[in-house]
Amino acid sequence: MDFISLGRANDIGASCHYLGVNGSGIVLDAGADPNGEGPASLPDFSPIEHHNVDHVFITHAHHDHIGSIPNLNAKWPMAWMHLTPATRTLTTFMLYASARLQRRKFDEGSSPFRALFDEEDLDDVFDVLCTHDYDQWIDLGSEHLRAKLHYSGHLLGSAGVLLSTPDHRRIYYTSDTRSEAQTMIPGAAHPSAPIDVLIMESTLGADPVAETVTRPEEEVRFARRLASVLDRGGTVLLPVFMLGRAQEILALLGRFKMQNLIDPETPIYTAGGLREVSRIYDDYRLSTPRIDPDFEVYSVDQKRFPRTRKARNRVLNQPGILVLTSGMMIERTLSHQVAVELLENEKHAIFFVGFSKEDLPAGKLLHAAQSGAEGMLLSPDRGMQQIECEVDRFRFSGHAHRRELTALAKKLQPDTIILVHGEAEAKRWLKQNLREHCPEARVLTPSQGERVTL
Ligand SMILES: [Zn+2]
Ligand SMILES: [Zn+2]
């Protein structure tokens, strides 16, 4: 059996891995780097150019797991793509939105790259998508090669993939996962031990704080800080990812209002695609794992964040909460535009509630604020700005912290662990600590394109 990571190995970029099992070619995820553009954002398919790809598993609808589906489909049009029904719906929405965005950026000159795919390419993809519920064996055609999707606790529709091979080995790909419950969705339901080969995510491997924070404590701290900004008449910006973090945070804000932890009359503003995604969350509330299936994201009263400058200024002059994309405050997105407006006023706050890469605006602002820098360049148009508003980070990640990951590995008793989806430092910490938790296991951190024989 062969394993090759096709995306950049020491990064949270394009997730895409190849497994050659008894003559069958299996690809796990077909992502693109959400912070990259053009061909460089895609996985490098050249190491498997002359291989067959028979089956593709799409674990969830984040761009770093789906963004190269059309490109993979163009190369291997006969490969079936397996995913849950909710992931199919979300993927459809996200990929059409991505095709439109890529075309617009090229047309208006803000990107030098032509769109990597268009709507017509996507129409072809939908012929090869096969949906499966969790915990059902999927027959992969060749004798005794089967797969099963396990609920992974990361976001709506997310799954880990269990493969059972003709030589009776069990391979488990966690993809992005979280064992503890979030606000709306419960924690993961991983397969039982033993697993022979564990392919495990590493996102929070270099984050020593995440494991020291309990969710209930963090919720209390978040509610108090929100209330204090609102009490002084300020606006709170919560930059969020459109899919997952946005809906979980809206659910949490709804609960805070019910519990009177923040003023129930506080207006909450949302905009753009995250509103559509919230609708999909609500549509699937009875057919996917939920803590409270009766809860709807749209039961939390939301106003649409206005488009005109004048109307926006009115919003920013009153206490309110803005739940806006993008999570990493990429330039020209709504959260970036609003951050530029809030930064120099001590009344306001920008609170981060998800993962932020250090080299992107959210990470840079957080670093600048935490290191006591007086100013920063958030927008070249605006020039240097003083950091007067409150800036903080709250840990409501959809990923397992690193001690959850080592505990999971210990429980599954693998012979081999392959660390993926994390920066070099994160993998280094995990590899070192797994020696203690899984002393018998071989821990691998293959580089991009490196072929590992298992
Ligand atoms: Zn994800
Ligand atoms: Zn991911």
Account of the protein in words:
This protein is α/β, with parallel strands linked by helices and about 450 residues long. The protein folds into 2 domains: about 1-205 and about 400-454, Ribonuclease Z/Hydroxyacylglutathione hydrolase-like (Metallo-beta-lactamase, Chain A, 4-Layer Sandwich), CATH 3.60.15.10; about 215-395, Rossmann fold. Helices cover about 30% and strands about 20% of the residues. The protein has 12 helices and 22 strands. The protein has helices spanning about 65, 70-75, 85-105, 120-125, 215-230, 245-260, 275-285, 310-315, 335-340, 360-370, 400-410, 425-435; strands spanning about 1-5, 15-20, 25-30, 55, 80-85, 130, 140, 145-150, 160-165, 170-175, 195-200, 235-240, 270, 305, 320-325, 350, 375-380, 385, 390-395, 415-420, 440-445, 450-454. The strands form 4 sheets. It has a 7-stranded mixed sheet with strand order 6-5-4-3-2-1-22. A 7-stranded mixed sheet has the order 7-8-9-10-11-20-21, covered by helices on one side. β2 (about 15-20) and β3 (about 25-30) form a beta hairpin. α3 runs antiparallel to α7 (about 275-285). The longest helix is centred in the first third of the chain and has 23 residues, at about 85-105. It is globular and about 65 Å long. The N and C termini lie close together (about 5 Å). The mean pLDDT is about 95. It binds zinc ion (2 copies).
